[in-house]
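The material for today's practical consists of a large collection of protein records. There is nothing in a record beyond a sequence line and a structure line. Backbone structure tokens are a discrete shorthand for how the chain folds in space. Nothing more is needed to start thinking about how sequence determines fold. As an example, a complete record with its sequence and its structure tokens follows.
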Amino acid sequence: MIDAAAVAEENGRRLDAHERELDVLRTALAARGIDAAAAVAEVARFSVAAPSWALGTGGTRFGRFAGGGEPRTIEEKIDDVAALNGLTGANRTISLHIPWDEPDDPAGVLAHARERGIRFDAINSNTFQDNPSTTAGGVVSYKFGSLCHTDPSVRREAIAHHRHVVELGTALGCRALSVWLADGTSYPGQGSLRGQFERVADGLREIHASLPADWRLLIEHKPYEPAFYATVNSDWGSSLLLAQAAGERAMCLVDLGHHLPNTNVEQIVSRLAMVGRLGGFHFNDARYGDDDLTVGSARPYQLFLIMLELLEAGDGRMPDVAYMIDASHNLKDPLEDLIQSTDALQHALALALCVNRDELADAQERNDPAWAGEVLHQAFRTDVRPLVAAARVRNGAALEPVATYRALGYRHAAIAARGSGTRATGL
């Protein structure tokens, strides 16, 4: 666990400098018509889930180089998320992946999470692998798809798995089911493009009908991998069609890495929000494909523009959708990577809150692209780190979370308690 008193002590060493920087920024923002206090409050309100599968070292198909002290159980994963939240003040939930992190004792796991101030966010299914618990003990296989499969028995097992995930999520207090399907084909002629899509739509409709009344179904798209010719749910348009076919509580989930290079993701956010079907967001970053890099590490301006569209959808506040970090920590300490991703999100949100939206709207109305650019860049070039730090302090977290994490020796303590050769489930 992260000791709040130790965090406060670390903050004390930096507090005078922080308050001086914050005062200067408050004055500068006020001159531009921006309420610094309101921005701090909105950043403090924001929370993004940590995924259970990303609390250990990630990897690629070429190899995995595990670090020490990785969580061995779901309880230890919750402990790590609690530590993360103690440093950032913005990771108040954990998102489980089933069956990778299926608890033997859901009630006990729920109690453990509550003791540490952590709740359960959207719960994730898995029909992109053959697991005994999802394939009737190996009777069926998802090699050629799950909900899209030509064999009705495979489709029935896939639907049964999703219903089981919903039952488990209900026991944990979840309110959403997140579905990413690997369904598709790798060769022309391998399957019927229309037939596969219609079967997936039928399956999602059945799953939607099984949801509790207060749940949402989050449908995630991806252009390719592991299907390399035609993925059933390959883009936001396909995702929207599937959501509309499934039911009124079916929404689209946008993963930043699940787009072809140079896709205008902020426009996708705008379109889905406009029709009331934006349900979730998986944050990461990418240079080439589904790279799952640290949030904001490659394309920070795109992240800023996405946050601006989210604020537009929420009329100045972050809308009520399921936010999660979905990154693979191949080289970094997983918790340091999650801290940096969370900080990047807080930072991008603070930047977007510094946009004078009235002035931007006026420039747009006057068809003045040069001044619209000035408005955006005035905000983007602002050093908002004092706002983000103030939001963290408001939530009892660290002014400088990575430095505090290292100073408190959390990873060294985890290695001492868990060993250097443990391997977390997941990526």
